[in-house]
From TrEMBL:
Species in which this protein is naturally found: Hippocampus comes
Residue ranges crossing the lipid bilayer per the database entry: 625-646, 658-682, 688-711, 731-758, 764-789, 836-858, 878-896, 1107-1127, 1133-1153, 1160-1180, 1200-1224, 1236-1259
Name this polypeptide is given: NPC1 like intracellular cholesterol transporter 1
Membrane topology, record value: Multi-pass membrane protein
The entry's keywords: Cholesterol metabolism, Disulfide bond, Glycoprotein, Lipid metabolism, Membrane, Signal, Steroid metabolism, Sterol metabolism, Transmembrane, Transmembrane helix, Transport
Gene3D superfamilies linked: Multidrug efflux transporter AcrB transmembrane domain (1.20.1640.10)
Family membership noted in the UniProt record: Belongs to the patched family.
Length: 1306
């Protein structure tokens, strides 16, 4: 054979031998007890780049395990105590270097697990077995080696191996860690240690696979964990014995002295708690709704009282009340007659003085303040929610300003992505690269020129920057959005790389990174070869529920909405940057609206800014001012036309009352201006509610009085020898007591209503009370003078507006009754007061009252915020999107007031939730509540800086260390410094496994904790910039603090109110527990704070508050009516009952028409009492003063005479103006001004003109005989005697009251 051929053959044979040897090494490794598969460190893994820690790998070394002595033994005992068999008997397969590297790796991972000692012990147990077990070759199989040159020597290194574990150990270790939480986020630690699967889909196999995957940035080599079931031999190499060690349960202590895990981290440690009590059910009687039963009983009972007949009154029974009534009426009539005569005699002087007085009051309008801040309007300064808000804002600063977009892309087709790492994943049409980039470009657009800063301003000038608040860059701003998973970098979104996994090579891109980050938002590096972080560019995690919405379960990539949130600092209104923030929000809205109107926009979205609510309310108020003006104009035209007499076409310009109507309107306007001016003088602010409601109320009251006065004058005939001024005085004397009765009742009613604790109701009541009073005063002065001037013009046959023009046709000497009075006298009153009709009316109205009483107990309490918006507002779309797509509710802070000592061990245990903490600590109680979100409305439990601080101090982590030497020796050493420089721990390992700093250590290291920005080396770090977000500006041992949780999504005011109530109940329970801790101040308190509490607290007390206010309003109507009618208790009582029925029926109809009961409705109900007085009191007084012989005839007279004036003055004045309000854009005006006032007016008219006459015909007082003239008495005596003779035997059921004789009266 040729030498060259021989050499070639030998070379080929040698190569085959080497290859054979390699395969033999990889596939037929020996597995013997007491032998190692690898030993010592041999440099970096050549196949791994971009690892978060140096990927140091071991040397391939099949050899006996080494006996450990000296420092080697002490290191093993410290890192892997479960392998310690005692000095001289401990063998291991790891060197000191390997133990040091293992310690570093465990430190990083155990930082998340240290809250649960048994979990941390099991985690270390697993990796100690793989790395250091003396029987290492029996539990691992090396599957891949590579040659690496290290320190000038080339060696084989292990870059991949299989680890065999018995499922008993693997499952037990996993279960002990499964529920360990991260207090800072409220999530589970295992979510960050299970890759793409997150906490929900994590299993033991997936957990171990992630730990052994080098793409996680922490594993130095690939480990293929094989979990072997008992008795299973398939797939297990010969000689391999799966590790069957015992994993500690989470409710067990550890051999090293660690305590059982807390309830929050270990369900098995939780005490057995009874389920929370269900909310009380509805009131029930006889197996059905109790209020319905009561209403039916009342209705049936009332029917037994309808047939009431007036007994015959003997002349000797004339009461003192009759004489008092006569005296009161005579006195009031006399006073007003003299007053009216004087006012009519000097009209110009009266008008001048009135104008001066109104002008004097009106000058106060120069100092008027309009309250537009909803907090100031609806929350009393001394209310609990307001005090809690002030306390929170003082210590922690106001809640940041929120500006948000919710973006969707309906109609776009989704796609299925076959990921190399995560398998098949569904992507909705929204979650696409082009839309992610489009959203990224949108959020970078906003900048503008600021006059306040005298430069171009952008987001960084006003943004909330929790990690760098003092010198913020744009990347420090807290912007939560999906592009933050890519650090808002277009390059990161476009990044792609080929990656090999399990022998398959594929391209990975933004989708793989996104899938990973949505499930592991706390990761500093994804598991792909992209190597990107999941943390936002401002340094905090973005949880998926803050970035996407409209998904099911954990299918984040199938989300239907992107959520983009800009958080701005909530500066005080006096700060120059407050205006800059408002301007930024204005530009934000402008850019978003322009973007929305762009036809090329791919998104359909809704948006809002912090200023949007106030802006939209102000906008719609301005837009609806013309509606109110039209409403008042319609009322004015009606009054001007309806007051005219129109006896002849030739005298139409003479008999019209255009100027009188205009004067009446001006009287109303002047009374409102005087009221507003007076309160502006004394510093009581006004509001838009006052501007909208008070003029309407005063117009209703004023118009009624005007009609009664003018119609009475038109129906009156001047007596022979009587001057015009005397006639006006006499007419005023007849009607002014009735006007006084109504005006005084209403004014006192509103003044008492000012006792309300609700600012908007209180100021409304004050303004309305004085306006009604001023309206009456001006009617008694200026309007009387104006009528006197108009009567003089009319007597001279001069035309209105053209006073120089006269007509020849003379005025008729007959009284002008118009068409309404004869109509009601001839047709309406007889039909209404027919015997059968009266019974039907009583039946119908009592049924309506009983039904309304039932409905009243079912009225919905609250005001949904979307009702404050006008129709077509962009905020309505935003609320719709908000309720549909957001997966969590508003944050709720549990705030601790001063007086609790956090620095003692007992104090920390009463707050924290980790090992050694009280099972009923603050955080643990909040967790118990979060376990029942449907009742507690707590969706995500509170995070705890106390837990993080304790974990940060743990000597098992790199977070808290001290410099060992040098100028900084003994000072705090950051986690990114080498262990060589920082070899000392802040605290020693506790003997009982429960780490608690002393008071001195607490105060020393807390500032370091708060200034330690979290990173890979120390994920438990905090940061000084959010110092005030945790414990206020200057923390002492008894200072205030707060702990943040999240509500469940709250969609209406009933849920917001219930959430507030449940949170307060929880906070009270927490307070009672913490008061038992030694050293706690007796006045210590924990309270829940949510930014919405100040708006919804009112609904906790608005029902009793409303009953109190309405009762206060009803009281003066009874008292004043009784007094002005001469202590006529029966008339006062019937007056009161009718007004109560109107109020109850109004609330019942509110339920039927979907009008919720709230502060705005309460203002209208208080107004309803005032308007009801107008409908009722005039009629009651007219009946009481009637001298007809029977109840029915007196009721007919009152219905015809006064009912016609009330109908024309109140009902027909209000209705046209109310109907115009139906065209308003604001939903609040449509619901609470159109609907509710329409109900109030119609019910008032029905009760005043239908029900009240019938009730008076049954139950009214008999004739007040002292009012009857002597000649009429004789005639009535003869009639009654004749009637009694013809109906002898009728007895006491007669409807005739026997009048007293003349001697009796004398």
């Amino acid at each position: 054979m040729h030498p060259s051929i021989l050499q070639s053959a030998l070379s080929s044979q040698g190569l085959r031998g080497i290859l054979f040897h390699t395969v033999q090494v990889l596939s037929q490794a020996e597995h013997r007890a007491g032998y190692c598969a690898f030993y010592e460190e041999c440099g970096r893994n050549p196949s791994l780049e971009g690892a978060l820690i140096p990927p140091i790998v071991p040397c391939r070394n099949y050899s006996r395990a080494r006996e450990l002595t000296g420092e080697h033994y002490r290191k093993l005992k410290e890192v892997c105590p479960m392998l310690d068999k005692g000095l001289g008997s401990t063998f291991a397969c790891c060197s000191i270097k390997q133990l040091t590297s293992l310690e570093m790796s465990l430190t990083l991972s155990k930082a998340l697990l240290v809250r649960c000692p048994s979990c941390a012990e099991n985690f270390a147990h697993l990796h100690c077995i793989n790395t250091c077990s003396p029987n290492q070759s029996q539990t691992v199989k090396v599957t891949k080696v590579m040659n690496v040159t290290h320190l000038g020597k080339t060696r084989e290194v292990v870059v991949e191996y299989q680890a065999y574990l018995a499922t008993s150990f693997a499952d037990g270790a996993f279960q002990s860690c499964q529920n360990v939480r991260i207090p800072a986020t409220g999530g589970f630690a295992i979510a960050t240690m299970c890759g793409r699967y997150g906490a929900k889909l994590c299993t033991p196999q997936r957990w171990y696979d992630f730990q052994g995957d080098t793409s996680n940035g922490l594993a130095p080599l690939d480990i293929d964990f094989r979990l072997i079931k008992p008795g299973e031999v398939e797939g297990v190499p010969e000689g391999v014995i799966p590790y069957k060690g015992r994993a500690l349960k989470c409710n067990e202590t550890t051999p090293s002295g660690g305590q059982v895990c807390s309830c929050q981290d270990c369900k098995e440690s939780c005490p057995v708690l009874p389920p929370p009590p269900l909310p009380p059910g509805p009131f029930r009687l006889l197996g059905t709704d109790g209020f319905l039963v009561i209403s039916i009983i009342l209705f049936c009972k009332d029917q037994n009282c309808n047939d009431v007949s007036q007994r015959v009154i003997h002349p000797a029974e004339v009461s003192c009340a009759d004489r008092n009534s006569m005296a009161a009426q005579a006195f009031l009539s006399s006073v007003f007659q003299k007053w009216g005569t004087f006012m009519a005699t000097y009209p110009l002087m009266v008008l001048l003085v009135s104008a001066v007085v109104v002008l004097g009051f009106g000058t106060g309008l120069m100092f008027i303040e309009l309250t537009t801040d909803p907090v100031e309007l609806w929350s009393a300064p001394n209310s609990r929610a307001r005090q809690e808000k002030d306390f929170h804002d003082k210590h922690f600063g106001p809640f940041f300003r929120t500006n948000q977009l919710i973006l969707t892309a309906p109609g776009r087709k989704g796609h299925i992505y076959d990921s190399l790492l995560f398998g098949t994943q569904n992507f909705s049409g929204l979650v696409s690269k082009d839309l992610v980039i489009e959203m990224l470009l949108l959020q970078k657009k906003i900048q503008f020129w600021s006059e306040d800063l005298n430069r171009t301003a952008s987001l960084k000038d006003v943004c909330f920057a929790p990690l760098n608040p003092n010198n913020s860059a744009l990347t420090d701003c807290a912007v939560n959005s999906l592009p933050q998973y890519f650090q808002n970098s277009l390059d990161n979104i476009n990044a792609k790389v080929n990656m090999t996994e399990l022998g398959v090579t594929k391209e990975v891109d933004w989708r793989d990174h996104l899938i990973y980050c949505l499930n592991s938002p706390l990761s500093f590096k994804d598991i792909t070869d992209l190597g990107l972080s999941c943390m936002a560019d401002y340094g905090a995690p973005v949880f998926p529920f803050l970035a996407v919405g409209g998904y099911r379960g954990d299918e984040y990539t199938n989300a239907e909405a992107f959520i983009l949130t800009f958080s701005l600092n909530n500066y005080p209104r006096t700060n120059v940057k407050y205006n800059v923030a408002l301007q930024w929000e204005k530009e934000f809205l402008k850019i978003v609206q322009d973007y929305q109107s762009n036809p090329t926009t791919n998104f359909t979205f809704a948006y809002m800014a912090e200023r949007s609510l106030e802006d939209e309310i102000n906008r719609t108020t301005a837009e609806d001012i013309p509606i109110f003006m039209i409403s008042y104009a319609v009322i004015f035209v009606y009054i001007a036309v309806a007051l005219g007499e129109y006896s002849s076409w030739r005298r139409i310009l003479v008999d019209s009352k255009f100027l009188v109507g205009l004067g009446g309107i001006l009287v109303v306007a002047c009374s409102v201006l005087a009221s507003m001016g007076f309160y502006s003088w004394i510093g009581i602010p006004s509001s838009l509610v006052i501007l909208q409601v008070v003029p309407f109320l005063v117009l209703a009251v004023g118009a009624d009085n005007i009609f009664i006065f003018v119609l009475e004058y038109q129906r009156d005939v001047r007596k022979p020898g009587e001057e015009r001024e005397q006639q006006i005085g006499r007419v005023l004397g007849n009607v002014a007591p009735s006007m006084l009765l109504c005006s005084l009742s209403e004014s006192v009613c509103f003044f008492l209503g000012a006792l309300s604790t609700m600012p908007a109701v209180k100021t409304f009541a004050l303004y309305a009370a004085l306006a009604v009073l001023m309206d009456f005063v001006l009617q008694m002065t200026a309007f009387v003078a104006l009528l006197s001037l108009d009567a003089r013009r009319q007597d001279n046959n001069r035309c209105e507006l053209l006073c120089c023009v006269t007509v020849a046709t003379q005025k008729s000497n007959q009284p002008n009754e118009g068409f309404l009075l004869p109509l009601m006298r001839k047709y309406y009153a007889p039909v209404l007061l027919n015997r059968y009709m009266r019974f039907i009316v009583m039946l119908v109205f009592l049924f309506m009252f009983s039904a309304s009483l039932y409905l009243m107990f079912n009225v919905t309490v609250g005001l949904d915020q979307e009702l404050a918006m006008p129709k077509g507002s962009y905020m309505l779309d935003y609320f719709q999107y908000l309720y549909k797509y957001l997966e969590v509710g508003v944050p709720v802070y549990f705030v601790t007031k001063r007086g609790f000592n956090f620095t003692t061990e007992e104090g920390m245990n009463a707050v924290c939730s980790s090992v050694g903490c009280d099972q009923f600590s603050m955080i643990q109680k909040i967790q118990y509540a979060a376990n029942h979100p449907e009742q507690s409305y707590i969706g995500i439990s509170a995070n705890s800086w106390v837990d993080d601080f304790i974990d940060w101090l743990n000597p098992g982590s790199r977070c808290c260390r001290l410099y060992s030497f040098g100028p900084n020796a003994g000072n705090f050493c950051p986690a990114d410094k080498s262990s060589f420089l920082c070899g000392r721990k802040c605290m020693a390992k506790p003997s009982n496994g429960v780490l608690r700093p002393t008071e001195e250590q607490f105060n020393r290291f807390l500032p370091n904790f708060l200034g330690n920005r979290p990173d890979l080396q120390c994920p438990k770090g905090c940061v000084m910039s959010i110092y005030t977000q945790i414990i206020g500006e200057t923390f002492q041992k008894s200072d205030t603090s707060r702990f943040m949780a999240y509500h469940t999504p709250l969609t209406n005011s009933q849920e917001f109110t219930a959430a507030l109530l449940r949170a307060r109940e929880l906070a009270y329970d927490i307070t009672q527990g913490m008061l038992k801790i030694n050293g706690t101040s007796p006045d210590f308190e924990v309270f829940p704070y949510t930014v919405t509490n100040v708006f919804y607290e009112q609904y906790l007390t608005i029902v009793p508050e409303g009953l109190f206010n309405i009762s206060l309003c009803l009281l003066p109507t009874f008292v004043v009516c009784c007094l002005l009618l001469g202590l006529d208790l029966r008339s006062g009582l019937l007056n009161l009952i009718t007004i109560i029925m109107i109020t109850v029926d109004t609330v019942g109809f509110m339920t039927l028409w979907g009008i919720h009961y709230n502060a705005v409705a309460l203002i209208n109900l208080v107004t309803a009492v005032g308007i009801s007085v107008e409908f009722v009191s005039h009629m009651t007084r007219s009946f009481a003063l009637s001298i007809k012989p029977t109840h029915v005839e007196r009721a007919k007279e009152a219905t015809a005479n006064m009912g016609s004036a009330v109908f024309a003055g109140v009902a027909m004045t209000n209705l046209p103006g109310i109907l115009v309000l139906a065209f308003a854009k604001a939903q609040l005006i449509q619901i609470f001004f159109f609907r509710l006032n329409l109900v109030i007016t119609l019910l008032g008219m029905a009760h005043g003109l239908i029900f009240l006459p019938v009730v008076l015909s049954y139950f009214g007082n008999p004739v007040s005989w002292p009012l009857v003239p002597t000649d009429e008495l004789r005639l009535m005596m003869r009639r009654s005697t004749s009637f009694l003779s013809s109906t002898r035997g009728a007895g006491p059921s007669s409807d005739i009251a026997l009048p007293p004789t003349e001697d009796d009266i004398t």
